[in-house]
Amino acid sequence: MPHVLAKISLQLLAKSNVDFLNIASRAQSNMWSNVPMGPPDVILGVAEAFRKDKSPKKVNLGVGAYRDDNNKPYVLPSVRQAEEIIFKKCLNHEYAPIVGDATYCDLIAKLGLGDNSLAIKEKRNVTIQSISGTGALRVGFEFIAKHYGHAKEIWMPAPTWGNHPQICNTLGIVNKRYRYYDPRTLSFNLKGCCEDICSMPPGSIILLHACAHNPTGVDPKPEEWQTLSEIIKEKRILPFFDMAYQGFATGSVDNDAFAVRLFEKHGHQIILAQSFAKNMGLYGERVGGLTIVCADTDTAAKVMSQMKILIRTLYSNPSINGSRIVTEILSNPDLKAQWLADVKEMADRIILMRKKLREGIEKRGNKHKWNHITDQIGMFCYTGLKPEQVERLTKEFHIYLTKDGRISVAGICSSNVDYVAECIHKVTADAKPRA
Q1: Looking at residue 29, what is its pLDDT?
Q2: 370 is catalytic
Q3: pLDDT value at residue 434
Q4: C-beta of residue 161 within 8 angstroms of C-beta of residue 215
Q5: Aminotransferase class I/classII large domain location, by residue (predicted)?
């Protein structure tokens, strides 16, 4: 028996030494030691700081999602009804086609381009289901990287949504900026924009926010879109529209698609990225679409064939639940009418909060001009606040927003709008008026 115990002890000792050596070896040969720490996401950083704040007065104006007047996530009544209808159908969970369900693709193309779209009537559009708006951008940019035969330069407005350049950088696509927002007037810089477009190499791609520009809330007027269309066509530049907020700007999905439909009517072979995160509240369902308008049906067939190959290697097939909800809403006249009312209700609440915020600041005798709050449109507003003023709002008053002064108007509600207005007045009262 003692001999047996001694043998077991030796085996355990040997095993311990091996484990120690293995641990030491792993520490010395870390296969990922070259990976640098990535910078934190700006918006997520604001959200994290907000969560840690214990103040009962805290307000989150960084959130990029709609909130109702009780500052709660909102599920649209039309979406609830669609979900009930789908549930009763007892559908299966088989794979969707690589490019998505054909009915869904047809419906979203018409929603974007319009029922009278010549491209749709002539079957020159290639429309696929994407993983929301980000997925549409990624597929579109990657298609450009692989197959675009002209200058592979994507020109983006300054400023633009932070993910636009990140996707391009990931794909190795050259991305540059054109003048868009004028910080002096807090409005659209038409002159600078046109000058920069005229300097772009023919065949370049220009990224355009179809409506409710993120992050500024500044959109060109209809006549300015007309001017941009003419210059872009003359310069033979490819327009790539990002339409993440259709209906959210004016409350009308048709009004908000004005630029897209104008460009298609003018003969541009546009690319259109769509998202149903905001206008249907389907954030977590990740449902969107990408449309490429081609010159003829033969080209459209070739583009579709390559699109299938590209998607197959990225995620193989899109998800089905979100697209079923969208399809149910857009194909059912009663549900669609309810959805259009839902969209208008959300847009009207945001417009009302803009009005109340401006009034709340101005009635306190603030010496600055605040008309840009109501002049701008959509979910976001570029307040014109400086970084030090933003810092004061956060540290002294527990109001959270990004350092560039962008706020999500959806985070403002009846119970906090007066407090936000008062605090903005306090941090700007002593500042020199803008020129």
Answers
A1: 73
A2: no
A3: 57
A4: yes
A5: 57-423
Of the candidates 278, 339, 342, 370, the residue annotated as catalytic is: 278
Q: How many CA atoms lie within 13 A of 403 on its CB side?
A: 5
Write down the pTM of the prediction. Answer: 0.90
Residue 351 to residue 369: CA distance in whole angstroms: 18
Distance CA(44)–CA(47), nearest Å, equals 5
Name 287's bridge partners.
Answer: 131
Q: Are 264 and 232 in contact (CB under 8 A)?
A: no
**Annotated active-site residue in 152, 155, 225, 242:** 242
- Cβ pair 376, 218 in contact under 8 A: yes
Domains and CATH numbers, the chain: 42-74+348-428 (3.90.1150.10), 95-331 (3.40.640.10)
Closest CA to 420 of 433, 403, 431, 408: 408
Residues 6 or more apart whose Cβ sits within 8 Å of residue 346: 66, 74, 248, 251, 279
55 Cβ neighbours under 8 A, 6+ residues apart: 398
Q: Residue 16: its pLDDT value, please?
A: 54
Closest Cα to residue 107, out of 238, 287, 234, 252? 287
**Residue 239, strand partner residues:** 206
Catalytic residue among 161, 225, 339, 370: 161
In Å, how far from its chain's centre is CA 219? Answer: 15
What is the per-residue pLDDT for 60? Answer: 94
Identify whether 155 is a catalytic site residue.
no
DSSP tally for the chain: helices H, then strands E = 17, 13
The parts of the chain modelled with pLDDT lower than 50 are 12, 21
